[in-house]
Design a protein that fits this description.
By secondary structure, the protein is an alpha+beta fold. Helices cover about 20% and strands about 30% of the residues. A hairpin with a 2-residue loop joins β5 and β6.
Length: about 180
């Protein structure tokens, strides 16, 4: 029979870390986040256990969504945030750290300055367009299901619905094909 015994110093350190994360989460209240294709926002009456696709609601991409309240959620390791959205409120799990994943959802804290006007429009419309960067593509329609390496020619990205997108070695979309089934 194994016992998980923690020293008092370990317990104190864990409490201190939780306190720091809780304080950082609270400071997000009043700030803005911006949704991208992989962002997940749920109905405001969903419980933490109900945060799944059946309770997911749509939000505009790259538009400011104000965090009206935020609380550290130890179980998910993310911030549970109440967002002001165009038609009311929604709930989301927001990362506290850069490059942290929260149940697959992603948000950006600022609209990246390197995005061109055409890329921003494509993201808001959730449409891939020739000439957009691969990062803008991810913001617009998410990550591909599969990636095929084409060597010096770049790569082929395979998306749901038989959409093939070709990206050159500089990370720029060269071509988009919608294959019939």
């Amino acid at each position: 029979m194994a016992f998980d015994v923690k020293l008092p110093e370990e317990v104190a350190l864990e409490r201190e870390v939780e306190g720091i994360k809780s304080s950082r989460a609270n400071r997000l209240t009043g700030k803005f986040v911006f949704a991208v294709a992989r962002s997940k926002v749920y109905s405001p009456d969903a419980t933490r256990q109900e945060m799944n696709d059946s309770h997911r609601i749509g939000v505009p991409l790259l538009e400011p969504l104000k965090i009206s309240s935020a609380k550290w959620d130890r179980d998910s390791g993310c911030v549970l945030a109440k967002l002001e959205i165009p038609n009311g409120f929604g709930l989301a799990l927001i990362p506290l750290e850069d490059r942290q994943q929260c149940d697959g959802g992603e948000f950006v804290m600022d609209v990246p300055r390197y995005l061109t006007a055409a890329e921003k429009t494509a993201i808001k419309r959730q449409q891939p367009v020739r000439g957009m960067s691969e990062v803008a593509l991810w913001y617009a329609i998410g990550y591909p299901e599969k990636e095929n390496d084409y060597g010096r020619a770049g790569k082929q990205l395979v998306y749901p619905g038989n959409i093939l997108i070709y990206v050159n070695t500089q990370g720029v979309v060269e071509d988009i094909q919608r294959m019939s089934r």
